[in-house]
């Protein structure tokens, strides 16, 4: 952590308390891995411009806590799933968000992280290698070209595209049991109205992220039977 001049103790407590506020109780091992990932992202970002956010303090809130806000929902879906191998697909993952934080906290699930930007997927691959994250596979491709080797249970996206484009792009990898979860800022009234008729909104939820200004929502979609 010294390479990035991060005060591990300070960030550790902030991450722990911030996670509690979004309904997540992190273990000491998870906190260590999440902060190590933050340190790697901060280091690589200086050379490769992986994120517009430069301040590690902001990264903690806008990247780590924002990603972890999905964890209670995904864990509920995991418990309800009738499959041993639960698969989460992160579309447009960028530098591994929300996929890597979620994978760290869900070691019993498989994650596939997709992005068309080779620079970003190289970072994700290297981060998983250095952190010893075994349940992540990285693909430098677009969702329209991705062929999943197994059933996809959840597809997540974080500011990836409009809801209509997200749903249409995922059409080939999703069946009626697959859930699409899109993270949005303001409630996307018009985007919901523009959804293809083959998709339903299952639920929406407003998120409160510590130290993050502005609205955050997730929208859960499913194919019509």
Provide structural commentary.
The chain has a domain at 2-66. It has eight helices and seven strands, in the order H-H-H-H-E-H-E-H-E-E-H-E-H-E-E. The chain has a seven-stranded mixed beta sheet with strand order 3-2-1-4-5-7-6, sandwiched between helices. The longest helix is centred in the N-terminal third of the chain and has 21 residues, at 28-48. Strand 4 (154-158), helix 7 and strand 5 form a beta-alpha-beta unit. It has helices at 8-21, 28-48, 56-68, 71-80, 99-105, 118-131, 163-169, 189-193; strands at residues 87-91, 110-115, 136-140, 154-158, 179-184, 199-207, 216-223. Helix content is 40%, strand content 20%. The chain is globular. The N and C termini lie far apart (49 Å). Helix 2 (28-48) runs antiparallel to helix 5 and helix 2 packs antiparallel against helix 6 (118-131). With 225 residues, it is of the alpha/beta class.
Quickly describe the structure.
This protein has 225 residues and is an alpha/beta fold.
Keywords, separated by commas or semicolons:
single chain, 225 residues, alpha/beta, seven-stranded mixed beta sheet, 8 helices, 7 strands, 20% strand, globular
Secondary-structure-derived class: alpha/beta
Instruction: Please state the overall shape, judged from the principal axes of the Cα atoms.
Output: globular
Overall pLDDT confidence: 93
* Beta-strand content estimate: 15-25%
Query: How would a crystallographer describe the biggest sheet?
Result: 7 strands, mixed
Could you give the topology of this structure?
Layout: H1 8-21, H2 28-48, H3 56-68, H4 71-80, E1 87-91, H5 99-105, E2 110-115, H6 118-131, E3 136-140, E4 154-158, H7 163-169, E5 179-184, H8 189-193, E6 199-207, E7 216-223
Parallel strand pairs: 1-2, 1-4, 2-3, 4-5
Antiparallel strand pairs: 5-7, 6-7
């Amino acid at each position: 952590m010294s390479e990035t001049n991060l005060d591990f103790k300070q960030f550790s407590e902030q991450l722990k308390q911030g996670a509690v506020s979004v309904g997540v109780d992190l273990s000491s091992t998870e906190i260590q891995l999440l902060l190590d990932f933050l340190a790697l992202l901060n280091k690589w970002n200086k050379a490769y411009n992986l994120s517009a956010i430069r301040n590690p303090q902001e990264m903690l809130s806008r990247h780590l806590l924002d990603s972890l806000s999905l964890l209670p929902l995904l864990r509920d879906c995991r418990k309800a799933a009738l499959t041993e191998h639960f698969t989460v697909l992160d579309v447009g993952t960028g530098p591994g968000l929300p996929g890597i934080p979620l994978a760290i906290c869900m070691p019993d699930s498989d994650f596939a992280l997709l992005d068309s930007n080779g620079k970003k997927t190289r970072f994700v691959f290297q981060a998983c290698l250095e952190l010893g994250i075994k349940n992540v596979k990285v693909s430098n491709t677009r969702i329209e070209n991705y062929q999943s080797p197994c059933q996809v249970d959840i597809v997540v996206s974080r500011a990836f595209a409009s809801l209509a484009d997200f749903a249409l792009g995922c059409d080939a990898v999703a069946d009626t049991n697959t859930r699409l979860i899109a993270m949005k800022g303001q409630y996307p009234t018009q985007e919901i109205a523009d959804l293809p008729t083959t998709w339903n909104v299952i639920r929406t939820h407003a998120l409160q992220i510590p130290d993050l200004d502005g609205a955050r929502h997730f929208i859960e979609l499913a194919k019509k039977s």
